[in-house]
Amino acid sequence: MSISLDTIVNLSKRRGFVFPSSEIYGGLRSAYDYGPLGTELLRNVKNEWWRSLVQLRPDVVGMDSAIIQSRRVWVASGHEQVFTDPLVECRNCHQRFRQDKLEDPDQCPSCGLRGQFTEPRQFNLMFRTFMGPVEAEENLVYLRPETAQGIFINYENVRRTCRLKLPFGIAQIGKSFRNEITPGQFVFRTREFEQMEMEFFCRPEESSRWFEYWVDHRRQWYLDLGMTEEHLRIRPHSEDELSHYSAATVDVEYLFPWGWDELEGIANRTDFDLRQHAEHSGVDLRYFDEQTGERFFPHVIEPAAGATRTTFAFLIDAYTEEEVNGETRVVLRLHHRLAPYKLAVLPLSKKPELVEPAAKLADALRHHWMLEFDVTQSIGRRYRRQDEIGTPYCVTFDFDSLEDHAVTVRDRDTMLQDRVSMDRLVDYLRDKLEV
Ligand code: ATP
Fold first, then answer.
1. How far, in Å, from the CA of 262 to the mean position of ligand 1?
2. Residue 413 half-sphere exposure, CB side, CA atoms within 13 Å?
3. Which numbered atom of ligand 1 lies nearest the CA of 191?
4. How many whole angstroms from 5 Cα to the centroid of ligand 1?
């Protein structure tokens, strides 16, 4: 089913997934704020990535580096010199654009005039600020534009303290900042965003094999979390697209409402970063192989995904509309592990004789799963709200529950209902939810 970007933006705002940042002051196109549901969804996406890349693996560890690092990091990595996009300005309407993303390189998408663009100038995407009270060149620092360099500069700290042997990975999730020339498509491209990156260090001769391995592994992660296979593809970079450090790169792409676009880049970064940091810092970052007595720079395979962008893709992919009894039912068919609430507990009526025991049941279930307790409106409307926010199961407490100590459990996807005794409820839900 193809859906429009507006549909997702509206749902996000209406239900509390994502709000425009600084909205009461007219908004700031650079960033977005995540509401209660969006925060849960984003957190679940990050947790699933962390579980798959760190917790379930004997060969990967996690870390969390600072956002503001020494300026020398970005000199060594090449970002200060080459982390740029080509910027053009329309002489007629003075709008600015990223030249390589223009559909027609000669026509202004804003005013429509042709032949009005200035010569492209290389615009550095790093946000600049100053450390301490003096705004002088020697106090210049950057907000990190990627999390990867925080890993490279700690490579030796982590390797030594965790006694790691090749091959091994170091993973990090965190905020990154890029002063994008044209942010847009909702949270797809923002100036402040979150990344999930892993640097996998291996012997140079094994890097091609590990590259293939991580491409397959990452593709499978999206599929295991329910992403539609036909909406996902792997696109190898052509020779002229490759970054300055890369021997091979593929993009994992998703079919967004506007077409195929990048979710994640997986690159063979060779030994570029470790070599650069060794040279610029003077610290020997070569790996010592105790068996052969060799010293060498490991090569690196990097899966680099956007957490906020991936969350957005899961939201789009889950959105469905269907006809039920002549009405449109909106359902977010999110994988259970990603759904913001796993359950909703709904007393059938507002009468205290139902609300009180239902609230007690909700309190008990809260220890197991994130849930919502909702008393307002008719039961039909409450089901529709839960469908729209992707809650897999609704647990309804009705008048019969007072007698038979059972509740009705409604499945989001099939809308089928089961009567389940309350003393079996946790086991019943665990079977359903922990797949
Ligand atoms: P693009 O070509 O779209 O500007 P990139 O190829 O420079 O992106 P990478 O440096 O490979 O992106 O970053 C890894 C991932 O981080 C991207 O695949 C994307 O998911 C995410 N990402 C990068 N820039 C942004 C942004 N401005 N907003 C949201 N996510 C981003």
1. 7
2. 9
3. 27
4. 19
Measured from the Cα of 310, ligand 1's closest atom is 20
> What's the CA-to-centroid distance between 285 and ligand 1, angstroms?
28
8 Å CB contact between 148 and 245: no
The topology (CATH level 3) of 341-433 is Rossmann fold (3.40.50)
- Between CA 89 and CA 182 the distance in angstroms is 12
| CA separation for the pair 249, 262 (Å, rounded) | 12
Let me know: does 254 contact 133? Beta carbons within 8 Å: no
Mutation probe of ligand 1 site: the residue of 189, 241, 310, 312 with most atoms within 8 A of C-beta: 189
Give 6's contacts (C-beta < 8 A, 6+ positions apart).
none
pTM recorded for the entire structure: 0.95
Q: Name the helix (H) or strand (E) containing 366.
A: helix 352-366
- Domain 5-73+131-316 maps to which CATH number in 2.40.320.10, 3.30.930.10, 3.30.40.10, 3.30.360.10? 3.30.930.10
- Rounded to the nearest 10°, the torsion over CA 55, 171, 247, 207 is -40
C-alpha of residue 325 to centroid of ligand 1, in Å:
43
Exposed/middle/buried for 208, CB within 10 Å: 0-12, 13-18, 19+?
Answer: middle
Pocket, ligand 1, Cβ cutoff 6 A? 146, 178, 180, 189-190, 193, 195, 262-265, 304-306, 308-309
Domains of the chain: which residue ranges? 5-73+131-316, 84-124, 341-433
pLDDT tens-digit map of 137-189 = 999 999 999 999 999 999 999 999 999 999 999 999 999 999 999 998 999 99
* Mutation choice for ligand 1 from 214, 244, 309, 314, CB with most ligand atoms inside 8 A: 309
Nearest CA to ligand 1 atom 1: 262
Closest CA to 217 of 188, 209, 158: 209
Atom of ligand 1 nearest to the CA of 180: 27
Encode pLDDT of 316-355 as tens digits. 999 999 999 899 999 999 999 999 999 999 999 999 999 9
